[in-house]
Amino acid sequence: MSRGSLIEQLVLALRCLPGVGPKSAQRMAYHLLERDREGARRLARQLQAAADQVGHCTRCRTLTESEVCRLCGDASRDDSLLCVVETPTDVQAIEQSTSYRGRYFVLMGHLSPLDGVGPEDIGLDLLAECINGGDIQEVILATNPTVEGEATAHFIADLAQLSEVKVSRIAYGVPFGGELEYVNSGTISHAISGRREFNL
User: Fold this and answer.
1) CB–CB of 153/119 below 8 Å?
2) So what's the architecture of 74-197 in CATH?
3) What is the rounded CA–CA span in Å between residue 73 and residue 35?
4) What is the pTM of this model?
5) What superfamily does domain 6-53 belong to in CATH?
């Protein structure tokens, strides 16, 4: 493969995906070119369309094609409950696993001072405005049970308690150091229904 060839560029492009190393990327590239050219074209079209048309919900910040996502646009959901998660995939994990009917706020990350990620970088100023809006009675902290996720949860708990809003934390079986998108649906369901009050 000559340096800078289209094949090499494709392999390098595929390596941007999480968990895809050089060998996996090469295998994917050759599979698409050798066995599934139409699949490759379809993938390219869908990636282009998604990259051009998917943005963030103006209310909860999850990924959506419209200004407001379908969950925020659903008038039957409970405005008094706000579940705070790190990523849009966490929203999907909770929606698929539980009967939770409240609202969401997606941080798009977690606090990480060592990486230069502060409160404004993950929208905690917007979250504070949301909490201070008056409708929310309980904030459910569903950040990942990692060191950064716990630090983020403590920061949010401080914000909520300044507004005298109840704060709870998901529990029961979500392992420390794990990430919600990899936890099975039964465990997530128990974690949401068995949430406990968050104490500083």
Assistant:
1) no
2) 3-Layer(aba) Sandwich (3.40)
3) 42
4) 0.78
5) RecR Domain 1 (1.10.8.420)
